[in-house]
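Tutorial, part two.
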Amino acid sequence: MQKNMFFPKSLNLTAIEKSILNQLRYFGWAKISWDHLFDEIPFDSLLFQSIKNDFKPLIKARNNLFSIDCPSEAQYYISSRDIYSTMPSGNLLQLAFMPSISRIVISYLANSFLYDAEYWLHFKSNSTVKTSAQLWHRDPEAKKMLKIFLLMHDVDSSQGPTEIISHSHKTSPNKVLSKFQSSKIHISNLDIDKLKNKTELSFEFMTGTTGTIIFLDTSAIHRGGFCENDRLVSYMCFLPKSLFCEHKYPSWIRL
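Running the prediction step on this input gives:
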């Protein structure tokens, strides 16, 4: 079973998939609508609706959280892992292994495996201080990785979308950004200002309409934002095969 978790090294890409891959390699991110990526499954398909229905327990949990008492100051999201077992939704796994997704993952990471797949509901926090993933950082798992997000509704600046510095992923052709590394887990605003003096920085917000699919190499410098309104996102994370070991693969793969 474990061998089947790895993708083959290469497949023929469509023109759209090549465009996404080129954007990923150059910018560290890419966006595309569901309809443009999946010719075989329309946007109003049963799969998308099934994924949408999977969010109902999260919405209920969020409502219960606020009806009992306000959440802790630091809390700003609920994930499906908080509610279900570690096994991801079968609907989300079906999306993760769609041919178009697989071809992009294979071409970007070569041999890889699905490390994580969750649903996230972000909501307004009582805190005015950014914390955890809301601070500038690089994900530390690998030099090259790929996270894919499916927006379940229109997302604008009021939903605290992820913000990324283009060209800052570790395999970027921009050497000033790709080589930069903070001595701490989080990157300070002072460090960002110093980078501005060395190279031009382009800040991009991962907003989009319902059904937008976002590809991010989160070795890039990025951060989450503050939510004024709820944000529902389906999330998948792919890592290089070299990290597939007892300490790096999730329990659900062992099932």
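The beta strands are 29-33, 77-79, 112-122, 146-151, 163-165, 203-205, 212-216, 222-223, 231-240. In part three we will examine how such features are distributed along the chain.
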